[in-house]
Amino acid sequence: MQNSLEGITVVAVEQAVAAPYASSRLADAGARVIKIERPEGDFARSYDKLVRGQSAYFVWLNRGKESVCLDLRLEADREVLDTLIASADVYIQNLKPGSIEKLGFASADLRRRFPRLITCEISGFGNTGPYSHLKAYDLIVQAETGLCAITGNQQGPARVGVSVCDISAGL
């Protein structure tokens, strides 16, 4: 199983936990994963400083990946991303709802342009429904699903210690 994805290229416009977890599984299986970060970097870089001054979550989720910093508000940087996607096998993204579409990289459009491309979009509340336009964080999903209500103590509900919803979504 190890390196079973050797020769596969993944372009991941990702941040935080869910998409980075998904692409990390692909990297662990031998895929080349190119992580696209915004100019200020993935905000998971600043979760803590536990691993030699770096975020434990960031190191765990992004080991074995290449990282490219792009400002997708700039045409030149969108052209770089387009070139990367054109030669990729898999495209993953988990930006806030509507963001990637505004930049011209919606999965449906990419699949029309690159029919062999496998796409994956991760969102907290899906593509339809009353909450589909909302950003989601693990704590919000834990609370909305009732998970916080079954954890905690006499003082009240509490978040599960790890980002279990984001990890499950990425898996």
What does this entry look like structurally?
The protein has 171 residues and is of the alpha/beta class. The protein has one domain: 3-Layer(aba) Sandwich (Rossmann fold), CATH 3.40.50. The protein is 33% helix and 13% strand. The protein has helices at 18-28, 56-62, 75-86, 99-102, 107-113, 138-145, 164-170, and strands spanning 9-13, 32-37, 66-69, 90-93, 118-121. Strands 3-2-1-4-5 form a five-stranded parallel sheet, with helices on both faces. β1 (9-13), α1 and β2 (32-37) form a beta-alpha-beta unit. α1 (18-28) packs across α7. It is globular, with a radius of gyration of 17 Å. The mean pLDDT is 94.
Put the structure in a nutshell.
The protein has helices at 18-28, 56-62, 75-86, 99-102, 107-113, 138-145, 164-170; strands at 9-13, 32-37, 66-69, 90-93, 118-121. It has 171 residues and is of the alpha/beta class.
Going across the biggest sheet, name each strand in turn: 3-2-1-4-5
What is the ordering of alpha helices and beta strands?
Answer: EHEHEHEHHEHH
Unreliable spans: none
Percent of residues in beta strands: 5-15%
CATH architecture: 3-Layer(aba) Sandwich
Q: How many individual β-strands?
A: 5
- Mean of pLDDT: 94
Task: Work out the helicity level.
Answer: 25-40%
What would you call the shape?
globular
Q: Helical segment tally?
A: 7
Major sheet size, sense and barrel closure: 5 strands, parallel
Question: Which structural class do you get from the secondary structure elements?
Answer: alpha/beta
Let me know the CATH homologous superfamily.
Crotonobetainyl-coa:carnitine coa-transferase, domain 1
- State Rg: 17 Å
State the CATH topology: Rossmann fold
What's the domain count? 1
> Span between N and C termini?
17 Å
Name of the level-1 CATH class: Alpha Beta
